[in-house]
Gfo/Idh/MocA family oxidoreductase
Amino acid sequence: MHGSATDKERVGESVVSHSENQTEFDRRKLLVAAGLAPLAFSAGRVFAQESRGQPLPQGAILPEPPGNQMRWAIVGLGSFAIGQVIPGFGDAQRSRMTAFVSGNPDKARDLGARFGVSDLYGYDNFDDIARNDEIDCVYIVLPVGLHAEYTIRALKAGKHVLCEKPMASTSAECEAMVAAAQANDRQLGVAYRVHFEPTNLEAERRIKAGEIGTIRHVQCDHGFNANPQFPPHKWRLEKKLAGGGSMFDIGIYGLNTSLMMTDGDAPVEVSAVYSYPRDDTRFAEVEGGIDWRLRLASGISVQGSSSYCYTPYISRQRYFGSQASIEMQPATTYDDNNLILDGNARIEVGAGNPLGQFAAQIDGFSDAARANTPHRTTGEMGLRDLRLIEAMYRSADAGGAVVKL
């Protein structure tokens, strides 16, 4: 069921619209607010220097001409879309925005004017994208409860889809999304940006090169203190929009990133317990925290925690090996990740600008869509993670009983 435009406005875009107006502007967001086009970012600077006859920076990569770039529609213009996704297109080499979808026409028109995007849609005419040949890919940046519906509708419209994480509210919805991609011969990816983030890629390289020996244990903790008065937090505490609690929103980073680093080592069992104040009124609809343990086929354990009760914001990954360990804190942020290799000496490793992860993810999906081959972070990966999270909740509901996978 598509639902009426009125229902969609009330359930989804009304929440997104409030969060859009609460954006805290950092440097990149200020550029957006000031109306500066993508020339403020590196790809634009390359074009500008070339057009003025100035020498290009050593090693600079020219973007594809606009006519060769994959064309994207952004669905949902909330704070994350405005603050991270849209600026990411400024650095993208093989991707450009051609359409916006929002329940706020004024905002869509304003952003469209600033970024040269003229094709604007609301949720009432979303399916009309099927007739727009200027859209190749769709990026779903909506509350989780709306992911499945709009992903499936975009796939049926013949577009490739990159969907924000978590993929959906339930594994059944994920299965329907994967089936829709297969039925329409389109690519479906989940926006696990950490797979494109330089510091995490460096950690992955070192682990797979054997620099810490054999992994023995992984520990991950992710969380923040949810404020129900702050609109970007408020919808996360509502089951219909968020799908689930902290594990869906912040804990999934620890789960997915740990499995990225232990690639090929299949989970075989999971256990979990709820860990938050049970009388906390914030968590009437969703869980506020969970401690979990995942056992892999090799015998390695991955232990994690996820919480809406942590102060300050926590993003930490630790990989313990037979010869050394890797510590990342913060580990999965937008712009401030670091890596310490702890062996005979502690070495802080530099790995590149984390802000590049958004452009790399977008271009990576554009490449997959152009070739119609699987993206690095597929819909099947998103389905796997939802099944694991559901198993955690089943264990926690049973007081921590082990759930076989």
Observations:
- The CA atoms of residues 19 and 230 lie 8 Å apart.
- The chain has two domains: 5-192, 195-352+379-404.
